[in-house]
């Protein structure tokens, strides 16, 4: 069973030199947090501070604690002991290994004697992507969506790290709802950078970034549930259209109107409410 940790973020300063809009944020096993904000607002800098277990030694001055204390040196220097996995939208594998060779190499480094995890990992990865990944596929030949799907499954099954950082997975061409469901079942702490309203709103807390620092931390009150349900309808419709396009479908103005008026009204209302929420 994965060892569990509580991760604490102690505030630093934004690029204007102002103290961030919180004192400390505690993230426990099973928590899901989203990080939102405009491009250039400091989202990636925050997850980099977390991934590097910063100790006031970055431009933000933040400190990251594990179980309320400065993390041991092994967590910082030894990848095999690090309790954090970071998966970005730009993940690429340069080694020209097969998927099977790549996964077995990681299994033998992190979980010796557990070659049975190979099938579990590839099967989970294939639930995240519409493009099936074969064990014989070359790592360097995988699409962006296949690569991210494999890396997430690898982090969940083989790496089995208790803290996962995901940077804009909605841009990776994967089934993001399935990813989030799998993450939440694992009792892991999940922190995700996102521009996606559905992912942002379904997280347990939202960290709002501005001017390179955290401007506020929002805890849902339940009042957003109607909006989340509307967005789920939109997500499902978009998924259907996306899959039809992949299969070569063409569309007329009538072909997409089965639920057009209702869906359009929901979409407009959701977008308008989303803008209002972003401006609060």
Largest sheet: 6 strands, mixed
Structure class: alpha/beta
Per DSSP, what share of the residues sits in E-state strands of 2 or more residues?
15-25%
Mean pLDDT: 84
Could you estimate the helical fraction of the residues in percent? Answer: 40-55%
In angstroms, what is the radius of gyration? Answer: 20 Å
Runs in which pLDDT lies below 50 for 5 or more consecutive residues are 256-261, 274-280
Description:
The protein is α/β, with parallel strands linked by helices. It contains nine helices and nine strands. The radius of gyration is 20 Å and the shape is globular. The relative contact order is 0.16.
List keywords for this structure.
six-stranded mixed β-sheet; single chain; alpha/beta; 9 strands; three-stranded antiparallel β-sheet; 15% strand; 280 residues
Quick synopsis:
With 280 residues, this protein is of the alpha/beta class.
Helix and strand topology:
Elements: E1 7-10, E2 24-27, E3 32-36, H1 43-51, E4 63-66, H2 73-77, E5 84-87, H3 99-110, H4 117-128, H5 144-159, E6 163-167, H6 176-185, E7 189-193, H7 197-202, E8 205-210, E9 213-218, H8 225-246, H9 260-279
Parallel strand pairs: 3-7, 3-8, 5-6, 6-7
Antiparallel strand pairs: 1-2, 1-4, 8-9
Helix pairs in contact: 4-5, 8-9
